[in-house]
């Protein structure tokens, strides 16, 4: 079965950093695009970043460009989201998700099929 498990969230002061991890299992990791999404209380879920199945173009939403970096380790079937210069408005539950896109260099226009349980990120001011 497909499983995505997020970790690395926590409480951090504004300006601080966190690295989120998404450990994947139950599918051929290199054939899937992986995305990071977040949802704050009372707000809609937002796509934050994604990385293509074939290493290439990544996607970042405008609000985090220059602060967050997505990467993956195929040998570990793990995707990371390094978050620097965190702001209170980054506070949310962060989810990773996957969609089959073997051979694709893109990740930003697809509906994602599989989701993790989320990890809480709280940024204090």
Helix percent reads under 10%
For the largest beta-sheet, the strand count, sense and barrel status come to: 7 strands, mixed
What is the radius of gyration?
14 Å
Strand content: over 45%
In one word, what is the shape?
A: globular
Q: How many individual helices? A: 0
What number is the mean pLDDT? 95
| Helix/strand order, N-terminal first | EEEEEEEEEEE
End-to-end distance, in Å?
40 Å
Number of strands: 11
Overall SS class: mainly beta
The parts where pLDDT drops under 50 for at least 5 residues are none
Description:
Strand 4 (32-39) and strand 5 (46-51) form a beta hairpin. The protein is mostly beta strands and 125 residues long. The chain is globular and about 40 Å long. It contains no helices and eleven strands.
């Amino acid at each position: 079965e497909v499983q995505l498990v997020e970790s690395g969230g926590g409480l951090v002061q504004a300006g601080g950093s966190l690295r989120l991890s998404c450990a994947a299992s139950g599918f051929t990791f290199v054939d899937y695009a992986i995305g990071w999404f977040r949802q704050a209380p009372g707000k809609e879920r937002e796509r934050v970043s994604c990385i293509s199945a074939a290493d290439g173009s990544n996607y970042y939403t405008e609000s985090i460009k220059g602060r967050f970096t997505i990467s993956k380790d195929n040998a570990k079937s793990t995707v990371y989201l390094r978050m620097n210069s965190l702001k209170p408005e980054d506070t949310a539950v962060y989810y990773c998700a996957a969609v089959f896109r073997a051979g694709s260099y893109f990740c930003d226009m697809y509906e994602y099929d599989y989701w993790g349980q989320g990890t809480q990120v709280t940024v204090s001011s």
